[in-house]
Each structure stands twice: as structure tokens, then as C-alpha cells.
Amino acid sequence: MAAVKDAVLERAVDLAREVAVEIAEEPEHVGEYLGAVREAERLVSHRFACTARGYRGWAWTVTVARVPRGRTATVCEAELLPGEDAILARTWVPWSERLRPGDIGPGDVLPFRPDDPRLEPGFTPTGDPEVDEVAIDELALARVRVLSPQGRDEAAERWYRGSRGPTAPGAVASSAACMTCGFLVPLQGSLGTLFGVCANEWSPDDGKVVSLDHGCGAHSETDVDPAPTEWPAPDPLLDENAVEVVAVEPSAAAEAPPVDAPADEPSSDAPTAEVTTTEVPAAEVPAAEVPAAEVPAAEVTTTEVPAAGEPAPEPQAEEPASEQAADGPSDDAERTPDGP
Fold this sequence. Notes:
Elements: H1 7-10, H2 13-23, E1 30-40, E2 43-50, E3 58-65, E4 74-82, H3 95-98, E5 119-121, H4 129-138, E6 145-147, H5 149-161, H6 169-173, E7 184-186, E8 195-198, E9 209-211, H7 252-255, E10 275-277, E11 300-302, H8 321-326, H9 331-334
Antiparallel strand pairs: 1-2, 2-3, 3-4, 5-6, 7-8, 8-9, 10-11
Protein name: DUF3027 domain-containing protein
Region (Disordered): 252-340
């Protein structure tokens, strides 16, 4: 049901302006009159423009009312309210929900969350030394609260999808993964199957959790590829002023004393005896004319080997027996009568 027009309240404009000027810091911050709004029966709000810097679109609003059958307006409340085109801040969010990772600085403290789903109660000692030793000493579960499966999964997802996972630009450009690097310190537990801690001071991830398939240019087993060049290879530099002294050990053959050859044996430098053998062809000697006894035998010429230090004698040429047989029969053969 719409509010009924109220002449007494709508005429209380001067009263409303006085109240607006009173609550404003400066009188000039109260601008022109923007009109009246009927809120309910016997309840009207008067609006004035706000001219203060930073409050464009805002309006001073003064609400007045009257009692039934009354003729006097009374101020109910006065405030500064935004209009349709006013500059407003973002919707208010609780501080615990507004905080983001990385906002905590030195000296800042987060409020305690007793129902944090990322945590669960820690291990309670049982009194059994074997069980307690494993849970407390090896697994470090003797804390009030420890990481829950949800908290562990959220951390693994955040680390793996973050800047130290396999999809980071440095990991894509690297030639080897962190799992083969000597500077990787593996984690314990289920997280150790995917993550480790970098311990290389030259790496951009030094002291941070990295995935095993992450990588960077500071890998312990990689090297810089040689850059190709069009310049010719330089000639080797020789130091001609330096003398290198090399000690040569004598061999066993050089240390052995020389052995003198016997005087009666020819030396290896003497010429070898030459043997000349001349054979007489049987076809050149007539078998009927020349008796077998008168045919000269093959002559053998032997060259004597001189002793060491003596000059070798010149060989004497002898007429071959074949030439003697070719000259004809001897004088005795010529004197042989042809007949009786």
C-alpha cells in the first residue's frame, strides 16, 4: 500500500537542511535539494546532494516523522547514503575469507581455526615402545594436529600445478628433470613420490619444493652446448723459446757388448762364393765321330773367397767347352783313317 501524501512532513525542508549541515564536516558539502521520498505513513525522507570530494552520487538523507493528528515534524535520523551512480567499495568480505596466500607479513598472526579441514588430530602415545617409536620418531606424528588427507591432496595439487611443476617455463626449456639431479633432496612419506627439495644455490628454486619432473638450467649433469661459429679454428701456438729436456733410457740391445767374429770364418761383409756351371748340349756333339772318352766333362769354375781384409782376386775367363766342341774334332780324330 502506497504512503499517503503528508503535507506537514513534506514542508519540513528547512528543518532537514539544518540537520544535514549540522552532521556535514563543512556547510558547503550540503548541495541542492533532490526531493522527498515517502517511506511510510507519517514518515518522509528529504535528500540533499553531497558536494564533498570523493562522494559523487551520494546524498544527505534526513528522515522526519510526526505523531497521529500532530502538526509538528520530528527528525528521526540523518545519514549520508549512496545513489544509483555513486562510487561504492566492493562488497564487504570477512577478514578470514579476504586473506590470500602471501598476505601474511612479519608480525602478522592468523586467527586459530579449530575446525580446519586440512588438519586432523595427531598421534596419541599408546605406551608400546615399538609403536610409539615409529609414530613419534620416524613419522613425527606426536603433534596436536597433523596434515589430513585433504590437506595433503590440496598441497600436492597446488605444488604440481604451480611455478615449480612440470609445466613451468623453466621446466619446459630444461634438458633434464630434477629426479636425475644430484641436488634434489627427496621428501618422506607419500609426498616423496612426487616432490623433493632443491638444494642448489645457483638454481632459482633453491630451498623450495619442486616436482620430480620439474627442471631448470642448474642441473648437476647437464652442460652448455657449444655454440657454432663461422670463424676458422686458430693455429696452435708453439713456444719456441722453451726447451723440453727428455731423458731417454738406453735399450737392452745397445747395452750388450759387441761380439768379435772368429778370424778363420768369413765375415758377413765378404762376397759369397760364385759357382759357374756350363753344360754342353748333347745335340752339338756328333756321337759317331767323337768317342765318349774324349768328350770333355762340364767344367766348374770356383771363385775363392778372400780372407777378411784382403782384396778379392779378379776372376779369369775360360773358354767354354761348347765352343771347343764346335771348332771340330781334335788332331787325333783327324788322323783316324776312315777305312781299314
